[in-house]
Amino acid sequence: MKRSPLLIIFITVFIDLIGFGIVIPVLPIYAASPRFHASPIAIGLLFASYSLMQLIFSPILGRLSDRYGRRPVLFFSLIGTGLAFLILGSATSLWMLFVGRILDGITGGNISTAQAYIADVTAPEERAKGMGLIGAAFGLGFIFGPAIGGVLSRWGTSVPFFFAAALAFGNAALLYFLLPETVRRKTAHQRTAHGRWRDLSEYLRRPSLALVLGTYFLLITAFSILTTTFALYTMYRFGFDAQHNGYLFAFIGTLGVIVQGALLGRAVKAVGEPALVIIGEALFAASMFVVPLVGPQHGGLGALLVVLSVQAIGNALVMPTLSSLASKTARADEQGTVLGVAQSVASLARVVGPIIGSWLLYSANAPQQMDDHSLRLTYWGGGIITLLGLLLALRLSRLFAVEKTRTKALTTHG
């Protein structure tokens, strides 16, 4: 394994995810402020617009990275992210927030390109560990990003967005000068480009990949319900503001880094990737059912931290493992495209999740209100969605066991 390119791509994703993490605790409160007067539904649509653009453009960026190289796609996507944050920070009306989020979504589908880069420089048996670097970068981004966003918001709710813009531009410069290219131009044009929906329909005919994508979709839908409504939930139950939520997301990120950076490789060797997906799905589902039962009179902050720990561990086990399994179903010349399609599926889930979460949270009451019943409805709905993903994960495990047995038999008789 070439360590120096992996270190550079890790730093690139880490800095990118700090910017992403800054948005999570700040944007809902920023948009709901008197400056914009965004309703909860509008906030859900604000999150969904970003993901809708990723849905459309992630496979395009993945295909472009297969064709022209990982480095230029990553570079220009970071420039777009920086511009998007500048728009968010200088916005004077709600439509400008949507413009900023839409631009960020168009250029923000670069995680699939980073995953393809890791697939380029890792052997198949090291793939899950390599994808764990992306997961660790996510975790670190959730440690520093929300905390930075919460602290900077004390000097004004626009300040975190300007800081994130500066990070993105600095990250683009770092990548331009230090990251080597992995795609050879003489082979990059061999694959015929398809439309993204034709790609998706083709991949869904591969049973293993279809189950991976289905599991991925359901988990991220549930995760998006959690992240979109969490700041509103803690504000209602505990009276927390953006700074408090930043600390909570930092706590979640710390656990994610520990699991994905230090434990994931050993766990894969111990039980295998399909089993890890099952374990992670079960943990995440359990956390979703318990979250709405926690409050100041029911366990307090300590109980909330325990529930969030279970959620973080489950998520940290599943995300990079599913990316690894998706990568292993792809040929060398379609890594970027397959992982781009996977990110599009994730983006679709991030469109669906916020809309479902916002609707459930306020469906039982008048707009701008929530109560214990609506909280249970929201998070138990997310738990049921996760359980559906668990059923797909069980099917995926059986399928991989059959394929492994078949491969072993062919090798023995060959």
Explained architecture:
With 414 residues, the protein is mostly helical. The protein has one domain: Growth Hormone, Chain: A, CATH 1.20.1250. It contains 15 helices and no strands. The chain has helices at residues 3-32, 40-68, 70-90, 94-107, 111-121, 127-152, 159-178, 185-188, 196-204, 207-238, 242-271, 273-290, 300-328, 335-363, 372-413.
Strand-residue fraction?
Answer: under 5%
Q: Could you tell me the radius of gyration in angstroms?
A: 20 Å
CATH topology: Growth Hormone, Chain: A
Mean pLDDT over all positions: 79
Residue ranges: pLDDT <50 for 5 or more in a row?
Answer: 186-195
How many strands, what sense, and barrel or not for the largest sheet? Answer: none
Class by alpha and beta content: mainly alpha
What is the global morphology? globular
CATH architecture identity:
Up-down Bundle
How helical, in percent, are the residues? over 70%
